[in-house]
Each structure stands twice: as structure tokens, then as C-alpha cells.
Amino acid sequence: MFRRIATRQFSSSAANAYKVTVLGAAGGIGQPLSLLLKLNHKVTDLALYDLRLGAGVAADVSHIPTNSTVKGYGPEEDGLAKALTGADVVVIPAGVPRKPGMTRDDLFNTNASIVRDLAKAVADNAPNAAVAVISNPVNSTVPIVAEVLKSKGVYNPKKLFGVTTLDVLRSSRFLSEVAGTDPTQEVVSVVGGHSGITIVPLISQTNHKNLDKETYEALVHRIQFGGDEVVQAKAGAGSATLSMAQAGARFAGAILNGLAGEADVVEPSFVDSPLFKKEGIEFFSSKVTLGTEGVKTVHDLGELTNVETELVNTAKETLVKNIQKGIDFVKANP
Ligand SMILES: NC(=O)C1=CN([C@@H]2O[C@H](COP(=O)(O)OP(=O)(O)OC[C@H]3O[C@@H](n4cnc5c(N)ncnc54)[C@H](O)[C@@H]3O)[C@@H](O)[C@H]2O)C=CC1
Ligand SMILES: O=C([O-])CC(=O)C(=O)O
């Protein structure tokens, strides 16, 4: 009796009740990300899919007494379709991570087809879901998802996101370390893309515009190549997983806050962007206001210093190639 009442009370038809699906849920990112999503009270239905161990991770996470129902899925018995059906948000951390000496682009050959195939399943089973792509190289995997969704006639540019939140977290942390401030109070807008020189933190828009040149350059370099620090330290066992899980949970949470109609939900993300389309750059990361239909507003970059303008111009040169690579891949390998 009690159980039936509890189920009804938290049924997914209620307001603020969402199904979130994680594709790649048993991986280094997927597991802690699933844990953090289990702690988000807006998530009432959590679907965890992986090639292996989806059921195991789900059984584990499901014992936490929050309001969501957790289910695990594998490729057998149409598990991917079942995991996706009815999803409001799909988060994709499936794919291989870097080893020392590799760039994110070196992951393209393996991850492009993984992401393409998962995007096909999203198109078929959750065409209205907001899709948040974590799998690298983000600058190319996001265009891959867009091309697949377009080919299936279900592309909604307002509901596709490349997750760049880890660059935002690192910026807050690293800036606070050089400025001697509280990292929780440092908010840094990061624009461009998610790899090396395409990552452009806008330090001039913080309270620390007067850092000396050497400190500023070292800070920007550390933010751009922060991922390498973790890859080196893990020495062949992968890249950032725990900080990325926090970043992914924060971004998925922001999408849910937007869907729920909360005011002023703003996060940087790599989205289908009007900012530089005239220059042939279809996707760009900048601050985005999230709303009930996904992207509500793509913010422009605001005022930049000459140095930041240079950094953005350099980022664009690489971005345009990374984006085209993703588009060409789907054209050649539909
Ligand atoms: N956007 C960002 O800021 C960041 C992105 N990443 C990227 O995230 C990805 C995942 O990283 P980790 O979790 O560390 O890797 P991992 O190897 O620990 O986990 C990947 C998981 O994906 C699963 N998987 C592979 N193919 C799949 C498929 N077709 N369907 C479902 N699941 C599949 C694997 O079974 C594995 O459990 C990598 O590409 C990495 O470069 C990592 C850190 C930050
Ligand atoms: O560095 C990597 O390969 C993983 C990643 O994207 C990050 O940590 O920012």
C-alpha cells in the first residue's frame, strides 16, 4: 500500500519529473555521473546503458534513497531503445579516453562511429530529447550527432549540446589559485570549443583583468591544457572522470532547470550558434540561456581584449576544421 502511494507521488507525469538516460554509464565518467544524477531530485527516472555492466551500476546506484527509479540496460533485448524511450535528457560519455601523447582529435577514429550509432538510436527512440555530448573530440562529435539527427529529420538545434563545463570548472579553480580567492565565487565564461587552443577563457570579464602578462599567459595555458595534466597523472589509465562527472551533472542539471522553466539558467556550451555562421563556423561555445525548449538565447562574447580577440581568431581556425571533419565523417559513413 505504502509503496503504491510512493510510486504515484513521484510518477514521471508530475511537474519537475524527468527521465535522464546515460549512454556509457559504466565507464570512468559514467559511474560517478550516474551517482550524481541519482542525487538530482528533478531526475525521477534514470536509465543507465552501457555495452557491459549497465545493470550492475544501476543496481548499485538504485539503493540510494532518492526519488528516482533506476534501470540498467545492455545491448541485449533491445536495451538501447528501451533506455532511450521517453528520455527528456540524454547524456553521452560513451567512447575511449586519451592516453599520454594523444590529442583529443586522435580519438576521432574510434569515437566517431560510437557517437554516430548512438545518435541514430537517439533519433529513433528519443527524437525530442535534449542531447548532451561528452565523448571526445567534442568539437567533432557534436557535428556528428547533428548530421545524424538531420539525416533522420529530427534535428532540433536548440536541443544539442557539447559539454564544455569542465573548462568552466577548471577556470574557476585555476583562477582562484593565482588570485588567492574563493573558487566557488569565481565565474569564468569560456568560449570556443573543447580542445587545447580552441578553449578560450575570458579572464577580462572577471574581477581579475589586471593579472601580469606572465601570470595571465600561464593561466590561459593551464586552462587550455588542463586535461593533459590529468592524462599525464593517470599515466595511461584514462583522463578526467571525477571532475568531468561533476561537470556533466552540473550541465545536465542546468538543462533540467531550463526545462522546468526556472529563470536565468545560463551555462557555456558548444551549440549550433549564430555567432560566426557567416564565417562558416556552425558550432561555437558561449554562454547560453536554457529554457523549456532547450537553448533560449545564445549570448554573444561580450567585450574582449585584443589578446582575447586573437585567441578567439586562433580557435576559429581549428574549430572550422574539427567541425567539418565530423560532418564529412557522417557523409562518408552514414
Ligand atoms: N567533454 C569533456 O570535457 C570530457 C570528455 N571526456 C571524454 O569522455 C569519454 C569517456 O571517457 P571515460 O568515461 O573516461 O572512458 P571509459 O573508457 O572509462 O568509459 C567509456 C564507457 O563507454 C562505453 N562504451 C563504449 N562504446 C559504447 C557504445 N557503443 N555504447 C555504449 N557504451 C559504450 C564503454 O563500455 C565504457 O564503459 C572519452 O571520449 C573522453 O575523452 C573525458 C573527460 C572530459
Ligand atoms: O583531456 C581529455 O582527453 C579529457 C577532456 O576532455 C578533459 O579533461 O578536458
TrEMBL record:
<feature type="active site" description="Proton acceptor">
    <location>
        <position position="194"/>
    </location>
</feature>
<dbReference type="InterPro" id="IPR015955">
    <property type="entry name" value="Lactate_DH/Glyco_Ohase_4_C"/>
</dbReference>
<feature type="binding site">
    <location>
        <position position="98"/>
    </location>
    <ligand>
        <name>substrate</name>
    </ligand>
</feature>
<feature type="binding site">
    <location>
        <begin position="134"/>
        <end position="136"/>
    </location>
    <ligand>
        <name>NAD(+)</name>
    </ligand>
</feature>
<dbReference type="GO" id="GO:0030060">
    <property type="term" value="F:L-malate dehydrogenase (NAD+) activity"/>
</dbReference>
<dbReference type="Pfam" id="PF02866">
    <property type="entry name" value="Ldh_1_C"/>
</dbReference>
<feature type="domain" description="Lactate/malate dehydrogenase C-terminal">
    <location>
        <begin position="164"/>
        <end position="329"/>
    </location>
</feature>
<dbReference type="InterPro" id="IPR022383">
    <property type="entry name" value="Lactate/malate_DH_C"/>
</dbReference>
<feature type="binding site">
    <location>
        <position position="136"/>
    </location>
    <ligand>
        <name>substrate</name>
    </ligand>
</feature>
<dbReference type="InterPro" id="IPR001557">
    <property type="entry name" value="L-lactate/malate_DH"/>
</dbReference>
<dbReference type="InterPro" id="IPR001236">
    <property type="entry name" value="Lactate/malate_DH_N"/>
</dbReference>
<comment type="similarity">
    <text>Belongs to the LDH/MDH superfamily. MDH type 1 family.</text>
</comment>
<dbReference type="GO" id="GO:0006099">
    <property type="term" value="P:tricarboxylic acid cycle"/>
</dbReference>
<keyword id="KW-0520">NAD</keyword>
<feature type="binding site">
    <location>
        <begin position="24"/>
        <end position="30"/>
    </location>
    <ligand>
        <name>NAD(+)</name>
    </ligand>
</feature>
<keyword id="KW-0816">Tricarboxylic acid cycle</keyword>
<dbReference type="InterPro" id="IPR001252">
    <property type="entry name" value="Malate_DH_AS"/>
</dbReference>
<feature type="binding site">
    <location>
        <position position="170"/>
    </location>
    <ligand>
        <name>substrate</name>
    </ligand>
</feature>
<protein>
    <recommendedName>
        <fullName>Malate dehydrogenase</fullName>
        <ecNumber>1.1.1.37</ecNumber>
    </recommendedName>
</protein>
<feature type="binding site">
    <location>
        <position position="244"/>
    </location>
    <ligand>
        <name>NAD(+)</name>
    </ligand>
</feature>
<feature type="binding site">
    <location>
        <position position="50"/>
    </location>
    <ligand>
        <name>NAD(+)</name>
    </ligand>
</feature>
<dbReference type="InterPro" id="IPR010097">
    <property type="entry name" value="Malate_DH_type1"/>
</dbReference>
<dbReference type="Pfam" id="PF00056">
    <property type="entry name" value="Ldh_1_N"/>
</dbReference>
<feature type="binding site">
    <location>
        <position position="111"/>
    </location>
    <ligand>
        <name>NAD(+)</name>
    </ligand>
</feature>
<feature type="domain" description="Lactate/malate dehydrogenase N-terminal">
    <location>
        <begin position="19"/>
        <end position="162"/>
    </location>
</feature>
<comment type="subunit">
    <text>Homodimer.</text>
</comment>
<dbReference type="InterPro" id="IPR036291">
    <property type="entry name" value="NAD(P)-bd_dom_sf"/>
</dbReference>
<keyword id="KW-0560">Oxidoreductase</keyword>
<dbReference type="GO" id="GO:0006108">
    <property type="term" value="P:malate metabolic process"/>
</dbReference>
<feature type="binding site">
    <location>
        <position position="104"/>
    </location>
    <ligand>
        <name>substrate</name>
    </ligand>
</feature>
<dbReference type="GO" id="GO:0005739">
    <property type="term" value="C:mitochondrion"/>
</dbReference>
